């Protein structure tokens, strides 16, 4: 009952947005994070694998018969949502999120684990990935809980993290000098580095400006090294202590990363990602800009990108290469706090 009010509110807001703008606001996805429901993934895969539409009725009533078509459909759903990997099998840190355990059931985890551990060699050929994925799914469906109908956050593959980092490098106009450091695997503590990390966490959907780090999402994101410490009260307490205490969010994120989160899960994943992104960014600069376009915009060593973009670079022009550059760039020292807005 408690949940009906906010939901009604959200639906109402969505309806208002739709009637005012003619747009479906549910399609207006923030940042670059992936969210999808189990049902949506199932429908995707029915399209990819050309499973006839009439079969959806069975699946929608949680009836997943033991036939080759259904088995491979579930493998596809698992790959789609990243709870399945043909080499390493079921990814429980992702899969668990799609099921809601019965509150009265104290043994859902043990019984699911038991089901998964049952010797698969007997019933299923180990080279039959569809069969194995299907079997694992059935264990969760039978023993873990009810499928959650909502769209949920699920992990990206690393190439998308690199893309998100590269996007942030562009948005924040990270100076080449720093990119060279990152590319060499060194991450100097500069305001740019702090804000780049903040942008990266925002863009990948694991940090929100209003509510801070989303540790549930971080846990899911690092599904290959599930780390319960993400979910501990101690971690939350440390994050809460940093939250808002510093006045600027770039520094908050940086310290949270350096002192609390960086070592968890896939430890210091971000540095590897930033290194790869910086290399790509530098490579693009070298390849695409052999001549003149950047000369108008000298290296920005003192940067304040709000002012930079709003005032000095208000007259950005589009170079023939398609790259935006600034006719004039401001060089002025600004106090640390001025970097943030
Ligand atoms: C499956 O896991 C292996 C080993 O960790 C990894 O190399 C591979 O990229 C994964 N495949 C997918 C599709 O994620
Ligand atoms: C689940 O299994 C673990 C170890 O196998 C055991 O210690 C624990 O008591 C079990 N929990 C329940 C609720 O049976
Ligand atoms: C396992 O497989 C063997 C041979 O395929 C069969 O004889 C046996 O009954 C099976 N055991 C179970 C528990 O299904
Ligand atoms: C540089 O900063 C100083 C003090 O912050 C300010 O007085 C001055 O106007 C600034 N110069 C430019 C070009 O913005």
Describe the structure.
The protein is built from 16 helices and ten strands. The protein has 341 residues and is mainly alpha-helical. It folds into three domains: 35-153, Recoverin, domain 1 (Orthogonal Bundle); 158-282, Orthogonal Bundle (Recoverin, domain 1); 306-331, no CATH class. The protein binds 2-acetamido-2-deoxy-beta-D-glucopyranose (NAG) (4 copies).
What is the element layout, followed by pairings?
Layout lengths: L3 H18 L13 E2 L1 H11 L7 H5 L7 H14 L2 E2 L3 E2 L1 H4 L3 E2 L7 H10 L2 H4 L5 H16 L1 E2 L4 E2 L4 H14 L4 H8 L7 H13 L3 E2 L3 E2 L1 H7 L11 H10 L6 H13 L7 H20 L16 H8 L4 E2 L5 E2 L16
Antiparallel strand pairs: 1-6, 2-3, 4-5, 7-8, 9-10
Helix pairs in contact: 2-4, 4-8, 6-8, 9-11, 9-15, 10-15, 11-14, 13-14
Quick structural gist:
It is built from 16 helices and 10 strands. It is mainly alpha-helical and 341 residues long.
Q: Low-confidence parts, pLDDT < 50 over ≥5 residues?
A: 1-6, 285-341
CATH superfamily caption of the largest domain = Pheromone/general odorant binding protein domain
Task: Indicate how many domains the architecture comprises.
Answer: 3
Helix fraction? 40-55%
- Number of H/I helices: 16
* DSSP, total strands: 10
CATH class of the largest domain: Mainly Alpha
CATH architecture of the largest domain: Orthogonal Bundle
Tell me the β content: 5-15%
Element pattern in H and E: HEHHHEEHEHHHEEHHHEEHHHHHEE
The small-molecule ligands in this entry are: 2-acetamido-2-deoxy-beta-D-glucopyranose
């Amino acid at each position: 009952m408690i949940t009906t009010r906010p939901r009604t509110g959200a639906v109402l807001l969505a309806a208002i947005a739709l009637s005012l703008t003619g747009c479906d606001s549910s399609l207006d996805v923030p940042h670059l994070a992936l969210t999808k429901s189990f049902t949506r993934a199932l429908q995707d895969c029915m399209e990819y694998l050309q499973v006839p539409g009439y079969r959806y009725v069975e699946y929608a009533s949680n009836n997943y018969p033991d036939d080759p078509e259904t088995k491979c459909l579930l493998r596809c759903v698992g790959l789609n949502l990243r709870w399945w990997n043909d080499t390493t099998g079921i990814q429980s840190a992702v899969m668990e999120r799609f099921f809601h355990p019965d509150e009265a059931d104290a043994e859902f985890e043990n019984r699911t684990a038991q089901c998964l551990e049952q010797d698969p060699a007997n019933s299923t050929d180990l080279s039959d990935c569809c069969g194995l994925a299907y079997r694992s799914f059935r264990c969760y469906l039978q023993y873990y809980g009810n499928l959650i109908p909502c769209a949920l956050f699920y992990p990206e593959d690393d190439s998308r993290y690199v893309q998100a980092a590269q996007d942030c490098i562009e948005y924040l106009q990270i100076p080449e000098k720093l990119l060279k450091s990152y590319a060499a695997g060194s991450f100097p503590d500069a305001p740019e580095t702090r804000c780049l990390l903040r942008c990266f966490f925002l863009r990948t959907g694991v940090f929100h400006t209003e509510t801070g780090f989303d540790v549930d999402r971080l846990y899911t994101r690092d599904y290959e090294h599930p780390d319960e410490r993400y979910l501990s009260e101690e971690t939350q307490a440390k994050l809460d202590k940093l939250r808002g205490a510093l006045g600027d969010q770039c520094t908050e994120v940086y310290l949270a990363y350096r002192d609390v989160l960086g070592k968890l899960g896939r430890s210091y994943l971000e540095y590897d990602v930033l290194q790869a992104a910086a290399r790509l960014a530098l490579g693009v600069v070298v390849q695409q800009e052999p001549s003149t376009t950047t000369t108008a915009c000298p290296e920005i060593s003192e940067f304040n990108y709000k002012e930079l973009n709003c005032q000095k670079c208000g007259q950005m022009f589009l170079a023939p290469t398609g790259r935006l550059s600034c006719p004039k760039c401001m060089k002025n020292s600004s106090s640390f706090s001025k970097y943030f807005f």
